[in-house]
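Quick review question:
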């Protein structure tokens, strides 16, 4: 990222400006113009992009989106290419992008990135930088070499740091476009899928357990609590046989079966992948403990004498002390006031009576 990222400060306003470009353009353009001079900590050669205080409302809103939440945002995926990439890997990355681009869950960077080597010490620096810039929790990295042809690395990040990853070799690939050309019926892009895993290796082998978890995060899409059965129209079947993982994407159609449970018919619709497992790296114990922390939402503080009503909304009670009307001091009108002569006569009569 050193040759593509440049930082400068304006001497007049003190704002920090960066020009970071890849793919078809810049990500979140002109964002750094809204940050103060003291809040910009842009360090080349490191993944730290420290932003502590925003200068404008727009910069504050961008920082609030990245703050930790009780319910996190859907996991976004950043897709990158290495210095040399085969056409097979490019097709696979493009296919994953088309499946996840609905709802803004995929960011594809088209330029080559020769400095990314995830399994080497320090080789994940640029990868973490791009993940932090795009606010992504998943990454897909494609490369090609004589030693590892048609290489595909899928991994996850926690707090913009590499969490775990697994490396696959693409042995066979059939695209969704090729299946459409053959007349296959396809589901809508971004539709919620059903995912089925089959094979003892997903439970017995450590690398296959990691592959199951990573593939599930990659294909699941947005998390929902309820789903309409009629809207469930596609299914991923992931099968493990020896050292190979077979991924098949099917279109689901419901037909009459003579009972309340419909008959499900599957039709191949694309994204047919044959992957062989190569290298993998698990998360460290310290990072795993931090990532697995669950926080319970705090109970809202109860306000005294304030209740909620479905019709009126917020309803409050007011308690008034008992009022002594005889002790109230009221302004008497002039017509009710006694004259001085009447007061003298009343005093004289009072004194004579006492005598």
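Suggested answer, residue by residue:
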């Amino acid at each position: 990222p050193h040759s593509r990222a440049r930082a400068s400060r304006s001497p007049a306003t003190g704002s920090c400006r960066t020009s970071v470009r890849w793919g078809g353009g810049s990500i979140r353009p002109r964002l750094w113009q809204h940050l103060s001079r003291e809040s910009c900590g842009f360090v080349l050669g490191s993944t730290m992009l420290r932003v502590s205080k925003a200068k404008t409302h727009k910069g504050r809103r961008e920082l609030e989106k990245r703050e930790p939440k009780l319910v996190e945002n859907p996991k976004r995926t950043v897709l990158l290419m290495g210095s040399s990439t085969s056409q097979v890997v490019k097709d696979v990355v493009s296919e994953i992008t088309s499946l996840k681009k609905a709802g803004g869950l995929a960011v594809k960077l088209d330029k080559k990135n020769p400095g990314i080597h995830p399994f080497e010490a320090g080789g994940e620096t640029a990868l973490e930088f791009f993940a932090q810039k795009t606010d992504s929790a998943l990454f897909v990295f494609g490369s090609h070499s004589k030693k590892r042809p048609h290489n595909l690395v899928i991994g996850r990040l926690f707090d913009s740091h590499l969490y775990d990853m697994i490396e696959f070799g693409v042995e066979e690939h059939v695209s969704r476009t090729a299946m459409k050309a053959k007349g296959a019926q396809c589901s809508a892009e971004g539709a919620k899928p059903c995912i089925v895993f089959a094979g003892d290796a997903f439970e017995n082998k450590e690398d296959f357990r990691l592959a199951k978890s990573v593939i599930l995060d990659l294909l699941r899409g947005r998390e929902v609590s309820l789903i309409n059965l009629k809207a469930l129209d596609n299914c991923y079947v992931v099968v493990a046989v020896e050292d190979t993982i077979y991924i098949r994407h099917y279109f689901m159609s419901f037909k009459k079966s003579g009972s309340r449970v419909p008959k499900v018919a599957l039709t191949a619709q694309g994204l047919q992948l044959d992957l062989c497992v190569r290298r993998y790296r698990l998360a460290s114990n310290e990072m795993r403990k931090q990532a697995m922390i669950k926080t319970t939402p705090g109970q809202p503080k109860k306000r005294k004498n304030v209740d909620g009503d479905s019709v009126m909304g917020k309803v409050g009670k007011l308690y008034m002390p008992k009022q002594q009307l005889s002790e109230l001091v009221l302004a008497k009108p002039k017509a009710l006031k006694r004259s001085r002569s009447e007061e003298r006569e009343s005093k004289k009569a009072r004194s004579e009576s006492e005598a």
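Why it works: The radius of gyration is 34 Å. The chain has a mean pLDDT of 79.
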